[in-house]
């Protein structure tokens, strides 16, 4: 809902604030006062093309700003948030056009492309009047309107069609990807098999790299290790093959033990030291035995060393290809084996996908057939209801048709193109509604469509703006237009620019646009009129002047309008509200 709309330096308007009612708001005023410029400003705010000629003489730029209150989850809020705007406390839009023709847009306090305003605007406002039709401009909008008119069952059928169609597209995309990558899958599987076979030939074991490294080190220095152990044995135990050799460590220790043993009995402390010498002798004897055994066990084996180095080289090659560690080689081996199974099953998967696609295609065709039948039936009801409604809007000779044309291949929303056509006069060929009428006729046609087809609630429905909806009519037809605008305002915000008192009398809020002089020039003022002021405004609209007789007629008109609205004379046509009368 549009809460507030401000215009500065646009056309004849220097500074005006419009605060529409949630229901029906009318703008009235003398010709040239700036009523239509309000609609133009709203169009700028919602992304219409900017023109430097719109800037008020003497000003550097025209500025329009709007504040909107929208329910949580409204698509316009998502668009604004995607543009970086702040939508926590409502949606604020702004647009400026400079004398040089440059346009700037702001969404939620953030600069944004003008195109974002247009996207948001299509979710918020439907403008009907003159050359500006912000509703049903695109063919798909005609289909959406027909589906909404057809009712919840058709909308549910359409949603099911969309779901199945989306699944069909996803299945076909996956099948195409598998089919197109068949050669690549074969190459990938062959490469993986080569690696798996290479690893299988080597058969690495956990921790093997470290074990082989230690064995290689030992085999490479076997002669030195044996010589060192034998030399240590000779130093400790002596060498019988050497004459007059120096006493060994064991011989020297034996002398120490013999010397201490003879006197240790005289002193406990020396006895303890003697015992330690005995213990050392035992340890030293064991060390000699172990060194001798080690020296005897050291094997100089060039063949084994060569085998160890060859094995280490094979493991290093695996680590280089699939590493960087042997554990990574094991991980690669497991994953590659699973991937080969997956790739080898690609043909089976492709066959399953093709089978599923055939099933889904049949489902889509069946749903599209049902949807088309429902649309054709609803099209006849919609055309009849709108044609009948036009009879109450001074277009009794007009005939509306709703053409449903089948496509060869269904799309996401079915196989139908929908076009709402109008034959404005007997004998004239039906043409698309955006080309078949102009000015007031087109606005009244749109009003009839909105009344018959609008099924949303106050949160979902857009704000409807009508300009010239009463052009060329008067009397009872004007009262009918006002009554039907009020009916539309029961579930949507409606803003109407009018010059007829019969229409203005139905308003929830009556705004008058006037020119006023403040000594420095002429400025346009937008002000709400109530009570006696409203009666005076209606009187001037009917007779051109505020006279007692005109006032009386204005009061009678207001009473009749209130009674009509209070009676709630609304009937249902095809599930949509239509005023009776």
Structure description:
There is one protein chain. A hairpin with a 2-residue loop joins strand 10 and strand 11 (414-423). This protein has 2 domains: 2-131 and 438-579, Rossmann fold; 153-370, no CATH class. Helices cover 55% and strands 19% of the residues. The chain contains 19 helices and 18 strands.
- How can the largest sheet be summarized? 7 strands, mixed
Distance between the termini: 29 Å
Structural shape: elongated
Q: So how many helices?
A: 19
**Average pLDDT value?**
85
Under CATH, the topology of the largest domain is which? Rossmann fold
Indicate how many domains the architecture comprises. Answer: 2
Strand content: 15-25%
Question: Which regions have little confidence, pLDDT < 50, spanning 5+ residues?
Answer: 455-459, 569-581
The CATH H-level superfamily of the largest domain is: P-loop containing nucleotide triphosphate hydrolases
For the record, the CATH class of the largest domain is Alpha Beta
Strand order of the largest sheet: 9-8-13-14-3-15-16
Helix content: 55-70%
